[in-house]
Amino acid sequence: MNGSPKLKLIPLASGLALLVVWLLPPVRHALESSMSLHMLVHYPGLMLAGALLTAAVPRGKRGRLAAWNALGISGLAACALFLAVLMIPRVLDLALVDARVEAAKTAALLFAGAVLKPSWRAAGLVVQGFFLGNVLPMTAIVGTLYQDSPLRLCNAYRLDDQQHLGQSLVWLAIVVAVLWLAHAARTLTSKGTARVAGP
């Protein structure tokens, strides 16, 4: 019991360290210099920092948040909304030149990361499937748009970088879909086996 608070400090310190490093101007500029790095490394890094920082939330407040986030629906819906907005090319451009947009992007990704893990745990397969059924097709469509567009959709990035990001987003959607379907099949199979075995 005495070691519990100390164990909670580890993810909190890790989250703070990651956030500080990710926001350092040299690191942030390096990650935002490429469209692929911006969306595939910078975004997930901020979400991971948000997930780690949830260790600082007191247990009482977690209970109140759980009531707001029944079955993980509110948290997953917020994540889907934030990710949809942050995939818009204009938002990527504005984040590079407008400090307010950059701050809003950072806050949105930290929040998305903070609520994603508990929301995913609270959601069953049906809610998870509904969430991924919206997010993954959206990701693949955006990726196809980036990949096939003959024009630069972001003024700050080269066309070849845009196409590389598009290919990566399509493959990411496919890989996540396959992994989740395998997980769902394994979960349903294990439940069916347990039901047949009985008490």
Quick overview:
The chain has 199 residues and is mainly α.
What does this entry look like structurally?
The protein is 84% helix and 0% strand. It has one domain. It has helices at residues 3-23, 25-32, 35-53, 59-68, 73-86, 89-97, 99-122, 125-148, 159-197. With 199 residues, it is mostly helical. The longest helix has 39 residues, at 159-197. The chain is globular, with a radius of gyration of 19 Å. The protein starts with a helix and ends with a helix. The mean pLDDT is 87. The relative contact order is 0.11. The protein has 9 helices and no strands. Helix 5 runs parallel beside helix 8 and helix 8 (125-148) packs antiparallel against helix 9.
Pick out its properties.
199 residues, mainly alpha, 9 helices, 0% strand, globular
Beta-strand content estimate: under 5%
Helix content: over 70%
Number of domains: 1
Query: Sheet with the most strands?
Result: none
Radius of gyration from CA coordinates = 19 Å
Distance between the first and last residues' Cα: 33 Å
Order of helices and strands: HHHHHHHHH
Number of helices: 9
Structural class: mainly alpha
- Rounded mean pLDDT score: 87
Number of strands: 0
**Rough shape?**
globular
Which oligomeric state applies? single chain
Give the helices and strands, then pairings.
Layout: H1 3-23, H2 25-32, H3 35-53, H4 59-68, H5 73-86, H6 89-97, H7 99-122, H8 125-148, H9 159-197
Helix pairs in contact: 1-3, 2-3, 3-7, 3-9, 5-7, 5-8, 6-7, 8-9
